[in-house]
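DATA SHEET
Item: assembly model
Revision: 1
Owner: S.N.
Input lines:
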Amino acid sequence: MGAKAVHAAHLRTAQTAYGAAMTFRVAMDIGGTFTDVVCYDEQTGAVLASKAPTTPGDLAEGVFAALGRVVDDPTLISFSWISFFVHGTTQGLNALLERKGAKVLLLTSAGARDVYQIARGNRERMFDLRYRKPTPLVPRADVMEAAGRLDWRGAELEPLDEQAVRRAAQRVRAEGFDAVAVTLLFSFANPAHELRAGEILRQELGDDVLVVLSHEVAREWREYERTSSAVLEAYAGPVVRTYLSRIERRFAERGLTVPVHVMQSSGGLVNAGFAMRRPLQTLLSGPVGGTMGGVAAARLLGRANAICVDMGGTSFDVSLVVNGRPDVSAEAHIEGFPVLMPIVNLHTIGAGGGSIAYAEAGALRVGPESAGAVPGPACYGRGGDRPTVTDANVVLGRVDPAWFAGGLMELDVEAAGTAVATLAGTLGMDPLQLAEGVCDIANAKMAQAIRTLTVEHGVEPREFALVAFGGAGAMHAVFIARELGIGEVVVPRFPGAFSAWGMLEADVRRDLTHPYFRAQDDLDGGHLAARLAELERDAMAALDSQGVAHDRRRVEHALDMRYEGQDYTLTIPLLDATEPASPGFLQAIAQRYAEAHTSRYGHATPEAPVEFVMLRSTGFGTFPKAATAAPARETHPPAVRDVIFDGQVHRTAVLRRSALPGPLNGEVEGPAIVVEETATTVIPPGCLATVDANGFLIIKVTS
Amino acid sequence: MIDPVTTEIIRCALLQAAEDMNTTLIRSSYTPVIYEAKDCAVALLDRDHNVLGQSSGLPIFLGNLEVCTRETERMFGRDVWREGDVWVLNDSYIGGTHLNDVTVYGPIFVGGELVGFAASRAHWLDMGSKDPGGSMDSTSIFQEGLRMGPMKIYENGAPCRDLHEVIARNVRFPHATLGDMRAQVACAMTGQRRLAEIVGRWGVETVMAARDEIFAQTERLERQAVAAIPDGTYTAGGYLDNDGIDLSTPLPVNVTVTVEGERVHVDLTDCADQATGPVNCGAAQAVAAVRVAFKLLISADVPLNGGSFRPLDVATRPGSMLAARSPAACQYYYSHLGLLIDLVVKALAPVVPGRAAAASYGDSLIVQFTGADPRTGKLYVSQEATVGGWGAWEGGDGENCLINNVNGSLRDMPIEVLETLFPVRVTRYEVRPDTGGQGQWRGGNGVVREYEFIGDTSLSLWFERSVTPAWGLAGGAAGAPPRVTLNPGTPRQREMLKVNALPVSAGDVLRCESGGGGGYGQADLRDPDAVADDLTQGMITG
């Protein structure tokens, strides 16, 4: 616990030096197993990270414990020192995964009752006569209809049947529903019926029942996707609301004076008050922190593009930073359910350390089946006897048993060796060759998945830096980079708590959309500019309600466009809200669209008419980004181990991260293994690593 | 000999290359038939026309893109392939499907050496057939539109203007059609780039050695799976309702499946002669349908590549509905293919109990309407497939309202998108209760989709599987057949299943009801709790 003692000493020194003036920015990422906390000392620039088991009964306990681990005496920390507090949560997602969400009644337009059950009728698996759709979160019997109809422009064809809405409210009361989701056809074009239904329901039901209106969740067309989004919000929302209000209360009791901020799936922050009203936005709150860390890391490195690789025991998530921004899309699928909301594109691949290697008809396959946590890889010693990627790393000597999982877990090296040798025997291979092959296959699959993601954006992976985090990310990063022709791998500080660090670096973000369905011939630039001006006002007001100071607000505008007849749109940025009113706008925007189309798909049809689908205005509230001090260097003599690279045994230095030479103080030459509490970095022969001023480990990759 | 690690890495790279091609195609296509209905498929082929990697939105396009490159080479010789050329083909008797399915393909060269082909097939909205989008009553291929043999659309990297002009002047929606064609060309280029990268990294020799091993692995796995099925001859038969012209004559389809050791032989010779109406297909497509059944029942989890289907052979009879010759009409080439897949499943169900299920509602059930949009004056074509009920199996109820077996990723048209694009209103979209066959496990229910037209329009319908609706298994009951009613409950009420270009007026209502899936096992063995839940959820009405 040497590191902990150092942190504690440091904190006490800081307190003595700065007294009551000292302020901390604190981020916490509450995951299913662990709670990560990262603190940033605004005076010294020091960054501290800590981890404690998540405490499901009262999650605040886990947070206090994690905070407490950075000091010897937790009472030394006063929450009144905290100047900024941000939080990532998986509460909503867990409720969905475990099917423990709210009891929801769904109210739809008459005739459209089964849109949610039909779920667009497609099959995700092609060769399965026994295919079943994901079980809907609202059973058919809990879907009610209300007459009332709008046409495609939002004009009323038939008034809303308010009695039907009241009947729904009666049933909610009588049968004890927790939430009501309302999705009426064409509410994206005209929300009047939904607003009226919401008014009646709130009148009848008060604040105890969450009422979710689909156009407020996602003002976009396609009724199934909008219904699914509204149902998800109603299903997960009460859990998130209860949780956030409890967290807020508990932290206030402990002296917290600033608002709790929450990470949204979009990679932006909002305060807890807003998150309680729009809980859907917090669904992927935790994992996107890593991407925002990638955004911050790219900024600190002066790079526009980064590939973020988060590899843990059983999963492998890739996301992109393109032109300094997170790659955010307007739609995603969660557990088979579509959601329309801005969401950081997290490409999940079943290729983590737990991926099982097996033989099939003479072939060697790796994954997607995972050993999970139980029994886990053979080296966990929990009875797993099938070799995994982690076992292969152990056999190759790339995992230091003393540092495995921060030294919290005993490693069964022998079991790993036996599992690998057994499979090698089946395939007639040498065990070491097999172990390296298993890693090579896993690396190749991860690299291919990354290439697919970059191809979708029309960008070349070569132009990116690879930012590796999670427990196993940096163990594989250099090999993945080689597959992709990437020259630089970045291992940030605290790779095991990088998500929390990323939250500290994120901005407040509010996304506003407005449907704007127009053929190019019908476009009125002045009208469009006026709509954007309104959206800009709304976005500014939203930032205001988030407490963002005037000089820290910024609104960006973009248009979703496509060629007439296309469905998928591309989001084309505008210079500002007034641009559409300028002469020659249509020509300019069509040109910009054609360029984007060419870059993304390799072709365009400049002579074809374009159409406009959606306005997107995003308000950002930026926080001052303070410089991070480099960590203090400790001295630890390196150990030496035998590690296999390219079929050869290499005498390899095992270095502690905290003992690496500081910036400009020299390089670490591969082969080397760098260990720290939460992660291991493998530097193969021929690669050079340095530590930069931010404390990042930068590996120059040679092929 | 190549090592298993390199082989596996190359295998994954080839699959990913095909996925990248598919992504390129779907994301840059112009028409909903491709991006919503996923009526498309891509394949990366080796220079001997074997599938290296494949990705398909449509199961029925399985493993027959290679017939296009193979036939081109047969006609013009191997020297015809030139770097920078892209080819196009839609001849039904080669590709097997209707003229709307256009295959675009190009050779891939590395260092001047031919290493393979990239190909995609996608449904073009309109080919200039006598009715917009395709006819339900064509009696000859010459009524079905522009027919292209193997032709170049790009030569040495430059578009061939003559053929572009021919296409632009023969189809009704030239912008969208040429846009889709460009998406296919972009897809081919993605495939070219990917395969060139793979060959560039490992070298031709290694890639070819890996290919041989990958194919051998698949073949071994499929032979093992076939060997596990008891030897014997298994048969099933059913009827296509009619050919769309003579509505009173059902057309028989009979399959005989012989399993012998590691081989499966499927005999399709005992089926109707090629019909007057557009229900014929080229033999390539009948083979593809049998392959779908083979995948469903025998090798669902086995990687799909040039080693696939080696234990399978299929016999067709030239001049029959399943191996048609010119000038047979082919617009609805797939109706009997859905039936064919279900029949192979039925024949083998007793010996592959772990994978089989009772029959599904069966067909795409097409609703098509076309006219001038009163809101804009522009010509439009709306074409939709209809979801329905799937069959139950031992241990599970069939799914409700799911797309049919020849389709896969096809998604229904959202009401809000449909009404925005076309002059129509959807007044009901609901589960159709009581239509799944009863049984210990219940067949899935069909759907009710009701339209109200807000302008005069020309309506075409293709609803099938009323003569042999979805049968049950092991004592389960059959599902209900489909039903279509124009202006239900009015004096002008009219029932029909197939019709071509019927004029309908603003205010007319069309109610389309799809069939249910077959049940499994005796109904009296059904768990009473399941029956109670069916009542609560309104899946049965008591």
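QC remark: Residues 511-522+541-621 of chain A form one domain.
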